[in-house]
Amino acid sequence: MVGALPDIIAERLAVVFCGINPGMAAAAAGRHFAGRGNRFWRAIHLAGFTPEEILPDNDRTILQYRCGLTTVVERPTARADQLSVQEFIAAAAHFERKIARYSPRFVGFLGKAAYSALSGQREIAWGSQPVALAGAVVWVLPNPSGRNRAFPLDQLVSAYRQLYLAAGLSQLPAQIAERMCGPCSERTRPRAGEFTWRVE
Predict the structure, then answer these.
(1) Does residue 171 contact residue 49 with C-beta atoms inside 8 Å?
(2) How far apart are the first and last CA of the chain?
(3) Which residues pair with 8 in a beta bridge?
(4) Residues 6+ apart with CB under 8 A from 115
(5) What pLDDT was estimated at residue 25?
(6) Where are the alpha helices (DSSP H) in the chain?
(7) Looking at the chain, which terminus has fewer C-beta neighbours within 10 angstroms, N or C?
(8) How far is CA 40 from CA 59, 103, 142, in A?
(9) What are φ and ψ of residue 154, in 5° steps?
(10) pLDDT by residue for the chain (200 residues), tens digit each?
(11) Which residues contact 19 (CB under 8 A, 6 or more apart)?
């Protein structure tokens, strides 16, 4: 049986990227975003978070760039739609405590599904959300899975670049980033507030 995938996290990071749950390939390998079609590592590199594309075998090096990795639900599945809403709800309190403990500045949800299930909101915009989570700014990003055909790589990079700018990271010179994903405007930080988890 494939086990849970350990978090890669530390205190007071700039961004913690939050996947829905581990894929089977990633969980079996013990490495984040190890699936052949997943575009996460390439997208964050081209968006400016890392100066080179990290290989899944070196996933822990993301901490060097003030970023971390976690998931909302620990159970691995072949597809995210194999999770139930009840699993998200059951994971909510633990996830909130985790964010409170490590105090990242931003939590970047990789896709709307997890954030929608946790918050109970159906209409969610991309990008910065109006309510904080345990003091962290919530940011919703497109899912980097290769199955997400609604977002080709250039659009994925552009969306991730918005978070890169908002977090104030500066791994790449501006002119290089401009060539890779085009000019991007910095997003404003939402006002702080208490995140209300969906409870049933």
Answers:
(1) yes
(2) 30
(3) 69
(4) 109, 121, 124, 129, 138, 140
(5) 82
(6) 24-29, 40-47, 85-102, 112-119, 153-166, 174-181
(7) N
(8) 11, 23, 10
(9) -65, -40
(10) 566 789 999 999 999 999 888 778 888 888 999 988 899 999 999 999 999 999 999 999 999 999 999 998 888 777 767 777 788 878 888 999 999 999 999 999 999 988 887 888 889 999 999 999 999 999 999 999 888 889 999 999 999 999 999 999 864 444 344 444 444 333 333 333 444 443 33
(11) 32, 33, 69, 70, 71, 72, 110, 111, 114
Alpha carbons within 13 A on the beta-carbon side of 185:
2
Q: Counting every residue, how long is the chain? A: 200
Place of tokens 């991309």: 126
Strand partners, 106: 15, 137
Domains in the chain, ordered, with CATH? 15-107+124-181 (3.40.470.10)
Give, as one character, the DSSP assignment of residue 82: G
17 bridge partner residues? 69, 108
